[in-house]
Description:
The complex is a heterodimer. By secondary structure, chain A is an alpha/beta fold.
Amino acid sequence: MSARSDADRSGALAGLRVAELASEATAFAGKLMSDMGADVIVIEPPAGSELRSRPPFVDDVVDPEKSLTWWHYNTNKRGVTLDLDTASDRERLRQLLLSVDVVLEGEAPGRLSSLGLDYADLRSAKRELVMVSITPFGRGDPREHEPVTDLTLLAGGGPVWSCGYDDHSLPPIRGWGNQSYNIGALYAVIGTLVAILVRDEQGIGQHVDVNLNASANVTTEQATYTWLVTRQTVQRQTGRHAEILPSLPTQVRCSDGRWVNTGVPPRVRDEFAAVHEWLRELGLLEEFTDRVFLELGMERERLDLSKLGEDVEVQAMFAAGREAMTLIASRLPSYEFFMEAHRRQMPVAIIYSPEETLQDSHFVVRGFPTRIDHDDLGRSILYPGAPIRFTGSPSRIRSRAPHLGEHNSEVFAEIETGADD
Amino acid sequence: MNSRALGRLRICDLTGQLAGAGATKILAAFGAQVIRVEDPVTGGLWDILRSLGPYVDERRGANVGGGFNNHNVEKLGVTINLRTDRGQQLFRRLVAASDAVTENFAAGVLARRGFPYEELKRIKPDIVYVSNCGFGHVGPYRNFKSWGPVAQAICGLTFSSGLPGLPPAGWGYSFMDHGGAYFMAIAVLAAILHRNRTGEGQWVDLSCTEAGATLNGPAMLDYTVNRRPLRRDGMPHSNRSQFGEMAPHGIYPAKGEDRWIAIACRNDADWHALRDLLKEPWASDAAYATLEGRRKAEDAIDRELAAWTRQRDAAATAALLRRANVPAAAVQRPGERIDEDPNTRDWGLWPVVEHSEMGEVRVEGLPLRLSETDWQMQRGAPCVGEHNDFVFREVLGLTRAEIQSLQEDGAI
Lengths: 421, 412
């Protein structure tokens, strides 16, 4: 790779060069690798990637340079534009793809072969190339032409079935954040790194085929393995695990109106004692009707959770622990409940909105929120930082997403001088 | 036969549950030698999934948990008692022979057992050490315990799932345990790659809440740039498009009990195709020809669309819509997507492994295929201490007599 991009890149993947054909499917995988130090070149058509038309926009003004979706998913990348209707740019694309370690793509079926640039074409020119495809059903599946969105992927692939409310007249719920694509991206990075390790050792490249429907299917925890083992179907519940048998609510509205999750209820003697003591300190012990079961819990070393649903006494003690936490949470402001519970070593959570997460002192002290200079706007903007804290080769969100064609001359010059040498 | 991909990699693995064990499962499927180190005193029950259902039959105990089997295929299992001197010495030998040490205890647990990163590094200078817990090992909440539902609540994902005026619907499972596992697998692989390039090992301080906070970036930027918080009236409404970019967009009732269909109109063309299928007078309203018009009338459109879908079979209607190029899918139940979906079946997504006590069990495979060095899953999760003999003799070079003496001393 070029000396120029080496100079300002550090991180676990420094030295790795990636060409990404811009798409919703590839965006997060490219970002994850660029944030870990890879030189990721995102390739767009002259009119710009479709992701640039995704809201929200800065000040709600539609502008391909001001999509916050584009911004988030393209930090640290360099951007080039190529007009694949012209022979010269098709040749330039071929040179670019053959100059990198990894090609990342989620193109429509047949698109790359029509350009003479599918995996077989590229491999015949460069045996050690790693090509990563991220598609709804895997390359070559009979359904590969079908349209999908995040919503339909998560509905067909399993996660939606498990999410929603106790009231089943309400629809099951899809969570926000484009998670079907995020999950696929995580698997794509895993596959890329495995393939690069193999290439370094054995000198061979390969095709990594990531299937988004399959990714969703294996990201549903016990919904899947319960079916695989016992052919039983879990049922959704409000804000907690979908189960075969209904479980007690875990979400409580605190005195300040915010919701918390009461986490893992007491299971061992000390935990029962801690909840009991907390009730006492708050003057709630008399009011708590299931106090006797809490006290029973304080007499046992530990509850055998595999007996839940079978042993009435275990059931009652487990429930009393959960209900004691519910009572306490309902009487305290959310942050106080959170901090006090953890002081007593009980894992509970405030249900933060995303902007609250970014401002929480823990995230700030760890250096997670990251300020990026936007020379284009004359201001700096706070971004969510790197997901993984490598202490020896830190990841860093260094630079904003590229403008359309921002690095054309730089990258094209590198190709012409043989960047891969 | 193992996948050849990571055949040279050895992991000294202290992970458990899903957030940790799910990561090393992936590495094991690609051929890494993953050696699970468990505590003989508790019989490995720190990992509560060891003894929790689902179960293949009436047997109970630490070797027959269905979730544990799913998350630990292709791994080896040894027991080492780190409270004993001889156990500690044995553990040192294992670390010295490994490329990476992985764990997802609460912060500080491994250090208190005598093995902070500095010590691991003394044993093996280029060791990769990946710790993974909810809040990481640094920061004001470093001593806070966590599990999946806590991690996803703290990072904003629970809040971002639900209907207006109702409590958060959240994720009906530990989504961030899966997420934490994926990020952890990336952390190990990237750190190994870095070691191969530079000769340097390192400690990776993975925090699931931090990793999860990168999964909702545009919502965060909407606040930091536009000062528009997600905590506001009418939000979230998460079956709809997140930023109003698509409409209609929702999960609608279908014929039958608890049957649902997801439909998304990405653009005006999708809406026109849907309208032509609906053949309903209400749908021909000219105002609906644009996204703006459809968004203004989104409640009314959702009501009408629900009245139409309610009389129809979810799977057949979704197929009909997809043929018209409108994204649609039935909300599939586990049995439907596992046993009846040709895509997951043809992918080989549900391999059968052989477990020493449970016999043949289906497990989750991986959603990616590598053309040259693909993953494989054949062996089930290890029983407690199942591979003590193999690992201590073949990997660490101990004699039978030494192993027996360790056993007598309560070190393994």
